[in-house]
Amino acid sequence: MVEIIKGITAGDLKGIEDILRSSGFFYEFEIETALEIADDTLDRGGYSWLLMKDEDGVVAFANYGKNAFSTHSWDLYWIAVHEKSRHKKLGKELLKAIEDDVKEAGAKILWIETSGRPLYGPTEAFYQRNGYTLQASLKDFYAQGDPKQIYSKVF
Amino acid sequence: MVEIIKGITAGDLKGIEDILRSSGFFYEFEIETALEIADDTLDRGGYSWLLMKDEDGVVAFANYGKNAFSTHSWDLYWIAVHEKSRHKKLGKELLKAIEDDVKEAGAKILWIETSGRPLYGPTEAFYQRNGYTLQASLKDFYAQGDPKQIYSKVF
Questions:
Q1: Is the dihedral of CA A120, A121, A126, A131 positive or negative?
Q2: Closest B-chain CA to A113
Q3: How many CB atoms sit inside 10 A of residue A27's CB?
Q4: What is the dihedral of CA A56, A100, A68, B71, to 10 degrees?
Q5: For B88-102, what is each residue's pLDDT tens digit?
Q6: Strands of B133-143's sheet, edge to edge?
Q7: Do A138 and B152 lie within an 8 Å CB cutoff?
Q8: Three-class SS of residue A11?
Q9: When comparing pLDDT for B68 and A96, which is higher?
Q10: Interchain contact B144–A (C-beta under 8 A)
Q11: Which of A70, A111, A113 to mutate to test the interface with B (most CBs of B within 10 A)?
Q12: Average pLDDT over residues B142-148
């Protein structure tokens, strides 16, 4: 039984870190950046979080926020599912919950940025499958040969 | 006599705010966001600043930083010249100083985002004149009919 919970507490940090490490996708500095967003949220608020939990604890998480310079754009910063819980459509369910939450808050567009490296091919396919359109590809943004892909969905 | 100074102190905040208000370009929430970056810098560091000062005080400022997710990309967040000091090529000089600073820190690409509204036409022309290329235009990003223009210069 998986439930979706809004917001995080200090007790969730270990579970979030475990998810980030479980995929083997992320660089150490990326994991640290995600955990800094969690620390900032606990300290000062300002980011929205959704957690998926089952009887073992946190199995997926997402964080997102309104873009400070836009009247109606929101940014999805992170969405990740624990490796052991893959292939259960949790990502799709979580993304749907994010969309419902930001729409309720007045969002007209949700933006998602991801790497264009082949490693992220399944990630891009996931966004496309869920109605996101590639709006731009910024050459060599993350590193030489590693472009930033910018996706969006208009509500 | 205008000099370029690296970094800010609490005594510079008023001058920075005056510059932001002098153009009439910026929304109140944009001014607040710029001043929050200044406060964060004074509290915790993390952003780079350059100020241009003459005998009257701060006449131009810029802030920028390394992109946390990239090995070699830097972002220019703000560059602004006081209305009373326009048409003296201070912007060009300041942009050159920023480029020298980030190149020294290992930057390979400097990214600049700006609004595509007609009001910002001269801003876009300024970036183009200084060697920046439009890489993407994100429709309706800031608001309906107000796209985000993404420029970059590769060093």
A1: positive
A2: B69
A3: 11
A4: 50
A5: 999 999 999 999 999
A6: B3-6, B48-54, B57-66, B73-81, B109-115, B146-154, B133-143
A7: yes
A8: helix
A9: A96
A10: yes
A11: A70
A12: 97
How do residues B53-99 score in pLDDT, each as one tens digit? 999 899 999 999 999 899 999 999 999 999 999 999 999 999 999 99
Name the one residue in this structure whose structure tokens are 């830097």.
B74
* Beta strands B73-81; B109-115: pairing state: parallel
B129: distance to nearest CA of chain A, Å? Answer: 21
Tokens representing A52 are 């998926």
Cβ contact A72–B150 (<8 Å): no
Cα(B66)–Cα(B77) distance, integer angstroms: 11
Per the document, the length of chain B is 155
β-bridge partners, A134: A151
Going by the DSSP 8-state scheme, the letter that residue A47 receives in this structure is -
pTM equals 0.93
DSSP string covering chain B: --EEEES--GGGHHHHHHHHHHSS-S-HHHHHHHHHHHHHHHHH---EEEEEEETTEEEEEEEEEE-TT-SSEEEEEEEEE-GGGTTSSHHHHHHHHHHHHHHHTT-SEEEEEEE-SGGGHHHHHHHHHTT-EEEEEEEEEEETTEEEEEEEEE-
pLDDT of residue A56: 87
